[in-house]
Amino acid sequence: MSPPLDLLPLVASFGWYVLAPLVSREEGHEAITRAAWEGMGLLPEQERALIRGVRSPDVSLAGLLSSALPFAQPRHALRRWWSTSSADAVRDAREFLAAIHQRAMSLPDGPRRWMVLGEALHCLQDAYSPAHVDRTGGRILRMHHWGPVDAFRGGGHREHGFPSDRRDSAWSNGELTVEARTAVQGSRRYLEIAVRHSVSPWHDVSQGQEIEALLDELMPYGPA
Prior knowledge:
The protein is mainly alpha-helical. The chain contains seven helices and four strands. 46% of the residues lie in helices and 6% in strands. The protein starts with 28 loop residues before the first helix and ends in a 6-residue tail after the last helix.
């Protein structure tokens, strides 16, 4: 895996960095996703669609236009409002993941389905970034908020920096950080289930139960 390229100034970014000309030359979500699918035998078109999907919330026109709106924050594993509790924020992100997985499974198997699965990966990966969550022992203790007035409300470094946060870098000394490697493991677990679900219809209730069980494993809230 190649180390990151030199950074250019980040004008607006939240989530693991993505490679974007004039904004960032560092891969984050892309590198995590490639490491997660390694050895799985995905088709090249599936891999390309996953990369497009995992980038979409940060660089697509729709993603950019909605990025500052409260309803869009769960797709980045962030609190909707300053007053939103972490418990509610984790629930919102989990509900988003379950819903978007169901949406992907409702689509014909092809690039569009795998792009939507990439959007699910984006949220799951953000839930491991230290700019988005405080974790201990694999459990989420606190989910952060993103906004221009956080610094005036006493959140300080505990909230996601505005407009970007260096803690979203997936790299340290040319290697993936511990948090990014953990995101790789979580992404791999999700992809294994997504591949299995892709060969059978969504109406199988056990698929929804399997996603809920996976989220219990990967995104548990509160101290043990």
